[in-house]
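Q: Second attempt. The first request was missing the SMILES, so the protein and magnesium ion are both included now.
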Amino acid sequence: MIIDIKDVSWKRDNKTILNGMTWQVRPGEHWSLLGLNGSGKTTLLNLVNGYMWPTTGEVSVLGEKFGEVDLRELRKKIGWVSTSLQQKLYGHQTAEHIVLSGKFATIGLYDRTDDQDRGKALELMTFLGCETLLDRTYDTLSQGERQKVLIARALMAEPKLLILDEPCTGLDIFSREQLLQMIERITEQPDGPTLIYVTHHIEEIVPCFTHTLLIKKGEIYNSGATADMLTSATLSSFFGAPIEVQRRGGRMWLMLGE
Ligand SMILES: Nc1ncnc2c1ncn2[C@@H]1O[C@H](COP(=O)(O)OP(=O)(O)OP(=O)(O)O)[C@@H](O)[C@H]1O
Ligand SMILES: [Mg+2]
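A: Got both inputs this time. The predicted holo structure:
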């Protein structure tokens, strides 16, 4: 089991943010997560990353039960890309340093790296089409360039699990399509990571995402095969509004109905 979450709740200030969530991700699956603002997606992923502890329930990731595992070691097997990570990074570091720091899953680069590490960083940046940015400091990069550097960073430790929390935020339509193609290529690699992809835009849920989790007000509303979740009927009741799903070129597009 890649992720095994059993009856997990998370409370803060007497408010229940996540309530009784049970979710399992098996090897070979790639999941997309859908839910309105504030529904609990990022909180759930923070629990998966071990950045937060569940108030009740059990979390196991990559076969390791939280509470019994060294989280710093486990985090090296989990790649993470999100805009909240962007804010934590040091802007004066070069793109190369940011990518290299992924090897140690640290913010900032403190550990020694060798030629092999630098070769790997270059290879990943080339794979993502951002190798020309190697010597540029992070704060001079555009939003799209930053996202590519962050994905290269996340792949540096050869993670078993790759969490992408709204990775297409701020990307123009061409950069977005490029990024989605790269994401599909990542899933085609043998021994590649299991992907968890959070988005508000269902057209980003490319065919490699086999499963979809629908989260509403801190609870799992429904989960299962993407084709069963992304239907007009399911999404209309999920959002409580008339929704029409249109299929085109293996992708789905949302229309608000009358
Ligand atoms: N540390 C915290 N203390 C109090 N409330 C919190 C905390 N972290 C999150 N919340 C609240 O929990 C709810 C879920 O937040 P979360 O960030 O998980 O939502 P989300 O589904 O990722 O939303 P978005 O689509 O806007 O990113 C929100 O109402 C948020 O304000
Ligand atoms: Mg969020």
